[in-house]
Amino acid sequence: MSTPAEEVVAIGEATLKDRILNRLTRLLQDQWKLLVLGIPYAWLLLFFLAPFFFVLKISLAETTIASPPYTPLVEWVDEGIMHVRVVIDNYAYLWEDDLYVNTYLNSLVISVTSTILCLLLGYPIAYAIVRSSHTVKHILLLLIILPFWTSFLLRVYAWMGLLADQGTINDLLIALGIIDEPIRMLYTTFAVYVGIVYTYVPFMILPLYANMEKLDWELLEAAADLGAKPMTTFFTITLPATSPGILAGSLLVFIPATGEYVIPDLLGGGNVLMIGRVLYNEFNANIDWPVASAVAIALLLLLVLPMMLYQHIQAKETENP
């Protein structure tokens, strides 16, 4: 039988062990949190911030015939004196040349219109998928994801065959007697819209579907019981509740569509000028890396600043409801 002094010592040892274990547990948890947070930050630094600052540096240089075809931002002259040479003429040149201004505006018009078309097409599809039975829902989702199993480039080439003057669509319309001669569809703005909407509509449907899955359908039933018409219920309950999905889907479509290069080049045939084509020409044809970098930075600011402003407004509304 242990004495009171031995019991006090045993309790002290147990308490010390618990403290050590708790401290080790907290230390491991802190290290695990640092690891979990460090991986995405390292990824962001390596694949976004580092290339961004590299392109920014080139955009502030002058074009040369040397290799690489731009002047260094920092030069060391005699006696160890550092000379920093910053040129902002590349950005001024973008606004002085109508080509770049018109290309930016045309890219915005095409991307905004394509986003609206994807929303008008994707919203009812997502709604229909959510309201389907469990088995049918999975089949429909599989059909939405199925095109991703095929190369993006092959799908664009397939649309070239469908929209050509002697393509499948024109041949079918002529066979049905709807038209007498082929309609010019390929190498037009219409073909670019078709390609962008076809390619990016799944990026609109999937966020909408994920958001609609969380919708409380009992609210719709309650509104119907109180005499609300379907359109009233949609605009007062369904549409506001699915606005996060609309925003997420719109950003997923708008951002890549603005800088799209392959679709305007193949389906537009160079007749539809977008900023991705201008970037390609400046880098490869003109070998004017500083101007091309300025075009890329201006495009990035054009896309990022409105998003940051929207997030700032949303944060203000959350703080002051």
Descriptive notes:
The N and C termini lie far apart (67 Å). With 321 residues, the protein is mainly α. Strands 1-2 form a two-stranded antiparallel ribbon. The radius of gyration is 29 Å and the shape is flat. The chain has helices at 4-59, 89-96, 98-130, 134-145, 152-163, 168-175, 189-212, 217-225, 230-241, 243-258, 262-266, 275-285, 289-319, and strands spanning 74-76, 82-84. The chain folds into 2 domains: 4-59; 97-287, MetI-like fold (Orthogonal Bundle), CATH 1.10.3720.
Name of the top-level CATH class of the largest domain: Mainly Alpha
Largest sheet: 2 strands, antiparallel
Helix content: over 70%
Uncertain regions spanning at least 5 consecutive residues:
5-12
Q: How many structural domains are formed by the residues?
A: 2
Q: Enumerate how many helices there are, as a single number.
A: 13
Q: For the largest beta sheet, what order do the strands appear in spatially?
A: 1-2
Give the CATH topology of the largest domain: MetI-like fold
* Rounded radius of gyration (Å): 29 Å
Shape: flat
CATH superfamily of the largest domain, please? MetI-like
Please outline the helices and strands.
Layout: H1 4-59, E1 74-76, E2 82-84, H2 89-96, H3 98-130, H4 134-145, H5 152-163, H6 168-175, H7 189-212, H8 217-225, H9 230-241, H10 243-258, H11 262-266, H12 275-285, H13 289-319
Antiparallel strand pairs: 1-2
What attributes characterize this protein structure?
two-stranded antiparallel sheet, flat, MetI-like fold, mainly alpha, 321 residues, 2 domains, single chain
